[in-house]
């Protein structure tokens, strides 16, 4: 059984009732009450004013969670390769384009078009942080978190470099919301390193498994886990929040899942 | 890196279904571009459409995946015995040890564009026969391919605009090196849709004529569609001479602009240098460069600067987009297969439609085919968001 290991050095988190990782730790492991609330997405201060104003939810989510993770790790993004994984891109933008293309006036705007690519958020991350390191932009529908974690781990193990993983999902407006009902924005950012350093929070070791996926005990968290692909990573965050050594199984593709051993550093 | 063997590969685009037709078109200098008569599109432009895509029927257990993108994917998988080769690999390695890594930019978005014309007049809802996850979602082509072959291992779609299906080679390389899989189905599938046609038109980046990469009068892209696949396996000790190997991958970001390349091609330069470093080759070792060469004024100028910086002006190069059109998320995969044909057949394909080379772009840009055996070829793929990827392929000996 092949295993892949890495050290988590920084965490970023935004979601319904989650405004950052430090404030969410005690909530995720059940030591503090959860207050459900719509996700609040901060304006991305690093983007120029015009782009900041126009930025869609997926860009705001990506930049906010990513910056939280690199700041927590005390790292600069410039040379940090990134893995971005999301079920979809900018949902509002996609809806507007489809609506226009179904109308008599199909002249969509250039900005709408370049923001429609799945890698728009990764592009804005690179522009905002000045990162010229590679970005790998993935889509795997409900399997996004597992696919992103596997890609990040293979980069770390094979290329022996730190990586930032950004797993982000946002909602579509109707009518697409009706066929892809992601209820709210949710993002997890992890800075992962090949070697243990003073800033390491936990060591993770992953392998493929067909064992059943861990569920969240709390009904609200389990609801998020099953409804939002990025939130499939919640059992991992719970293990890190609890501290100590744990074994979790994360959903990935159908019967193929990820077994992850988590050991706090 | 340990070289990886492209044990089988295939391509389907507007210049042909499968390798024989593709090679013949390249030899004859035949372009697949024609005036746009796609769907209800009312733009004065030229496109590279694959004939017969909509006649393809998906297997009965996979009809939920039915959309133009997955139809083209299946048409592509059925060429050159690729389907059988994958099944043979599965028998050899096991269904969990063969990964799927495909690139696409827009997947089956055409299905959503069409569904938006059929919304419920009262509720605005999409029609009940519309299956978002298996058509529109970027993963649909990866999911379709995984289920088509009954695979149970890792699968993912890379969607980084026009670098998508070049990057899949890098992701597959890493997963093979990490030991999670023994073989990988890599490639790209992208199909015509209104989003890209009207989108590139809105940016003023689409030519009214067949695109003319590196021409002094170049004025934009021609959009095409394609499905291209390769089966990657560890290279055995003994390979026949014309076997093709993946030797290097290089990736970078521009950190510059969403829809314009870095003017000096800085990110492109880093991608090419990264691929050379991984391959352990010098610039002079590369015998042919398949350029990104979209035929927009800025792309070709920036790419030229980047190529000159790394290679000087003597390396034979061309863009095959004058033949196939810009197949967007499939371009990296398609042009990887063209590089494999270049290596096997010693044919350096001319860049079509280009009448007068831009004197400001000083490269050995091929206007006629050149018969010349080369040992190593490099392919460039760059995309929106400033995403860059270069691949190096080599003959086994």
Could you explain how this protein is built, in words?
The complex is a heterodimer of chains A (about 260) and B (about 400). Chain A is α+β, with helices and mostly antiparallel strands and about 260 residues long. Chain A has 10 helices and 8 strands. Chain A has a single domain (about 10-200), classed as 3-Layer(aba) Sandwich (Peroxisomal Thiolase, Chain A, domain 1), CATH 3.40.47.10. An 8-stranded mixed sheet of chain A has the order 3-2-4-5-1-6-8-7, sandwiched between helices. The two termini of chain A are about 25 Å apart. The relative contact order of chain A is 0.21. The radius of gyration of chain B is 20 Å and the shape is globular. In chain B, strands 1, 2, 5, 6, 7, 9, 10, 11, 12, 14, 16 and 17 form a 12-stranded mixed sheet that branches. A 3-stranded mixed sheet of chain B has the order 3-4-8. Chain B has helices at about 20-30, 70-75, 80-95, 110-115, 130-135, 140-150, 165-175, 195-200, 265-280, 295-310, 320-325, 330-345; strands at about 5-15, 15, 35, 45-50, 100-105, 155-160, 185-190, 225, 225-235, 245-255, 290, 315-320, 345-350, 365, 370, 375-385, 385-395. Strand 3 (about 135-140) of chain A pairs antiparallel with strand 6 (about 155-160) of chain B.
């Amino acid at each position: 059984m092949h295993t892949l290991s890495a050290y988590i050095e920084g965490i970023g988190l935004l979601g319904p009732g989650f405004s950052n990782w430090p404030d969410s730790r005690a909530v995720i492991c059940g030591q503090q009450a959860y207050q459900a609330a719509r996700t609040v997405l901060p304006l991305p201060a690093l983007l120029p004013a015009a782009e900041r104003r126009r930025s869609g939810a997926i860009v705001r989510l990506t930049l906010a969670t990513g910056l939280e993770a690199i700041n927590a790790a005390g790292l600069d993004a410039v040379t940090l390769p990134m893995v971005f994984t999301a079920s979809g891109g900018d949902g509002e933008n996609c809806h507007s384009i489809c609506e226009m293309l179904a109308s008599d006036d199909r002249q969509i705007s250039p900005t709408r078009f370049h923001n429609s690519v799945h890698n728009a958020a990764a592009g804005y991350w690179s522009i905002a942080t000045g990162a010229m390191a590679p970005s790998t932009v993935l889509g795997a529908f409900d399997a996004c978190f597992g696919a992103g974690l596997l890609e990040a781990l293979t980069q770390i193990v094979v290329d022996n470099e730190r990586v930032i993983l950004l797993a982000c999902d946002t909602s579509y407006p109707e009518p697409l919301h009706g066929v892809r009902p992601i209820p709210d924005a949710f993002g997890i950012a992890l800075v992962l390193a090949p070697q243990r350093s003073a800033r390491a929070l936990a060591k993770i070791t992953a392998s493929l498994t067909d064992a059943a996926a861990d569920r969240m005990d709390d009904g609200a968290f389990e609801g998020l886990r099953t409804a939002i692909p990025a939130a499939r990573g919640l059992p991992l965050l719970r293990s890190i929040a609890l501290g100590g050594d744990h074994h979790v199984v994360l959903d990935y593709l159908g019967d193929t899942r990820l077994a992850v051993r988590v050991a706090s550093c | 890196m340990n070289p990886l063997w492209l044990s089988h590969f295939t391509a389907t685009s507007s210049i042909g279904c499968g390798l024989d037709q593709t090679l013949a078109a390249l030899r004859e200098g035949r372009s697949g571009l024609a005036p746009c008569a796609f769907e209800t599109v009312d733009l004065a432009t030229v496109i590279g459409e694959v004939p017969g895509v909509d006649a393809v029927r998906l297997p009965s257990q996979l009809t939920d995946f039915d959309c133009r993108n997955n139809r083209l994917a299946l048409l592509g998988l059925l060429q050159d015995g690729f389907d059988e080769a994958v099944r043979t690999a599965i028998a050899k390695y096991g269904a969990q040890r063969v990964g799927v890594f495909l690139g696409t930019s827009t997947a089956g978005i055409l299905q959503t564009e069409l569904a938006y014309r059929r919304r419920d007049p009262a509720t605005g809802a999409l029609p009940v026969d519309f299956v978002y996850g298996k058509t529109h979602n970027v993963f649909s082509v990866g999911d379709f391919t995984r289920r088509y072959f009954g695979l149970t291992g890792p699968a993912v779609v890379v969607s980084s605009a026009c670098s998508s299906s070049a990057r899949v080679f890098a992701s597959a390389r890493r997963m093979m090196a990490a030991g999670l899989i023994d073989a990988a189905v890599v490639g790209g599938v992208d199909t015509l849709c209104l989003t890209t046609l009207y989108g590139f038109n809105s940016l003023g980046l689409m030519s009214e004529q067949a695109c003319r990469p590196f021409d002094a009068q170049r004025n934009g892209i021609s959009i095409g569609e394609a499905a291209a696949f390769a089966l990657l396996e560890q290279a055995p000790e003994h390979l026949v001479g014309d076997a093709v190997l993946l030797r290097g991958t290089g990736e970078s970001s521009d950190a510059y602009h969403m829809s314009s390349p870095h003017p000096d091609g800085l990110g492109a330069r880093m991608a090419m240098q990264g691929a050379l470093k991984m391959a352990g080759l010098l610039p002079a070792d590369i015998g042919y460069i398949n350029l990104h060469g979209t035929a927009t004024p800025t792309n070709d100028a920036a790419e030229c600067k980047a190529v000159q910086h790394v290679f000087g002006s003597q390396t034979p190069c061309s863009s095959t987009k004058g033949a196939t059109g810009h197949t967007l998320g499939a371009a990296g995969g398609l042009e990887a297969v063209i590089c494999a044909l270049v290596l096997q057949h010693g044919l350096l394909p001319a860049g079509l439609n280009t009448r007068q080379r831009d004197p400001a772009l000083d490269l050995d840009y091929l206007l006629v085919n050149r018969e010349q055996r080369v040992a190593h070829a490099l392919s460039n793929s760059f995309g929106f968001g400033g995403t860059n990827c270069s691949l190096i392929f080599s003959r086994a000996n």
